[in-house]
Amino acid sequence: MTKSNTQPEEFAPAIHRLAFVFVLAVVAWAMTAGRVAAQTGPVMRVEEDWELRLDQPASIKTAPQLETVISPFASAENLFARTTWNYREFPDFVPGGMQLQAWQGSQILAQTNFGSNDLSTVSETVTWTQQVSTDGTLLVFKIKDGQSTTWGNFGGSTLTLLGVVNLDNLDSYSTDVSVENSGISFGANRVQLLQINEVRRYGPGDVLLETDSSPKLVYPTE
User: Fold this and answer.
1) Residue 37 has pLDDT above 70, yes or no
2) pTM of this structure
3) Could you give the angle at the alpha carbon of 178 between the alpha carbons of 173 and 184, nearest 5°?
4) 11 pLDDT exceeds 50?
5) Where are the domains of the chain?
6) Which residues neighbour 110 within 8 Å (Cβ) at sequence distance 6 or greater?
7) What are the Cα distances from residue 117, in Å, to 62, 120, 122?
8) What is the distance between the alpha carbons of residues 198 and 212, in angstroms, rounded to a whole number?
9) Residue 25 CB contacts under 8 Å (≥ 6 apart), including other chains
10) What are the tens digits of pLDDT across the range 73-89?
């Protein structure tokens, strides 16, 4: 897949202090790459329900550390969101909490943080929904409906990044991109499970087009 060579022209805070504005000329993708046969219209929003089950985390080592990815396209070569869990990465490494990042290729466009506590509860389960959506002009990455012992309830406006991308739909979205680019980066022995439990595709007017309830295992790898 060919990367767009157009770089963001401007970054500035939006009305919401944790939003970003960037302008990209998106190259033409094969819009059928991520299409599900059951769909009856263009995909405008995708939601992935994630689950993390811990074994014995070690706060003194900031372990485990993991990352999850979502992209509006059938590849993470161009534009995608990445969330780091149990650490914040930019501008400098800070243990604990989480950081939602927007990337274009190898360039980070923006980031927003939530929480500062380290994972430290034995057998803790963390759940959240990872979302990407477009209205044809504005592309939004979001973490929402998060629940955990360490961070309590999290997500929503505090973990949202948005920008002008002029993308008509998300028909090229592929769950495989999320699975293949996510994983445990440190302390995998302290994790029991990381997986996507359900994926939902929505059309215009928030009409539910398709639900995939088959679990997608990220860790342990089969």
Assistant:
1) no
2) 0.84
3) 175
4) no
5) 45-219
6) 11, 20, 22, 101, 102, 161, 163
7) 10, 8, 14
8) 6
9) 4, 6
10) 999 999 999 999 999 99
